[in-house]
Amino acid sequence: MTNHETSSVDMQSVNNGLVFDPAPTPDEEKQLLDQLPSPGSEVMVVRSLRLPLDVDEQVTAAAHDAGVAKTVWMRQIIEAALDDRRDDDRVIRLADAKRALTLLRSNAA
Known about the structure:
With 109 residues, the protein is mostly helical. Helix content is 64%, strand content 0%. It has a domain at 49-109.
């Protein structure tokens, strides 16, 4: 028997073992439909993202410090970057702001 024939036999066995639930009653169907998000509500999309280990560890630490889940922290960072693109006000890194303020102090002295 070839691999193709084996997989066909295996799939037939799996198919024969499937058991389907009965259709929901009208009351069960209403309960299921009531669990769906309301029309017009925000839809969240799942994305997969590959990060180097050290970046992931930094994200984990930053999210922990902020008291939020990693996905919430990443979403907030993405939203801030998108806001930066839309607004005249620019979001800058804290390190850059500190450096600029230090230079201003040095020039004022």
